[in-house]
Amino acid sequence: MMKTLFSAVALLASSLAMAAGPTIPLDKAPIDLRDQASLQNGAKLYQNYCLGCHQMQYQRYSRTFKDLGIPEELGMEHLMFTGEKVGDHITNSMPAEYAETSFGVLPPDLTNVARVRGADWLYTYLRTFYVDESRPFGVNNKVFPQVGMPHVLQELQGVPTRAYETRLVDGQSTEVYVGIRTDGSGELSTEEYDRAVADLVNYLVYTGEPTKLESHALGTKVLIFIFIFFVLAYFLKKEYWKDVH
């Protein structure tokens, strides 16, 4: 009985620790679902760097092209690589058995990852990989320690390492983590890389809820209708009850 109780307590503590989220502050993701140029660039980055492992089996190419203002001909030429039809879902051709053998687990579908993890988590995660030769893919992550995937955007960012500064803490010299620094070998500058990651996260936020802007617009119209109906109902009530009083 006591063993079962201790096991339950340990499981609860573990669950609470996981629910507590990352141990470092998250950077605010500059999300703007009205910025079609950002969404288009995010889609391009996803197709070129993420789709090889991570599917979006709940998102269709046709819906993506329509919402992002991409002509079907251009979308099929530049964003569809394995002969799919424009009405197909965004999937890859990697066999599940091969993926599990290579990564130890099947790479998750990312259609709804922004709704599960949050935009700020994704934005910080993709910018906090660092070299760690002890890991299978040679990298680790500040937000997701012991991460089991390669840093697929390294050719854009360059080789990232953890940077520390010596500071006085309680009167003692202490090495304090101050962020990620790169060796400058990437195709993008730090500012350009941050913008590219923001575009990618913006796209992931969109795929998590493609109708978000439509829903907000519809909600505004409904509120306006309710307000007009309230005004009409108020004056109708006054007209109806004026003879009673």
Automatic annotation (TrEMBL):
InterPro entries: Cyt_c-like_dom_sf, Cyt_c1
Domain of life, source organism: Bacteria
Keyword presence, Membrane: yes
Keywords, comma-separated and alphabetical: Heme, Iron, Membrane, Metal-binding, Signal, Transmembrane, Transmembrane helix
Subcellular location, record wording: Membrane
Coiled-coil intervals: none
Membrane-traversing stretches: 218-236
Signal peptide extent: 1-19
Protein name (database record): Cytochrome c
Taxonomic source organism: Alishewanella tabrizica
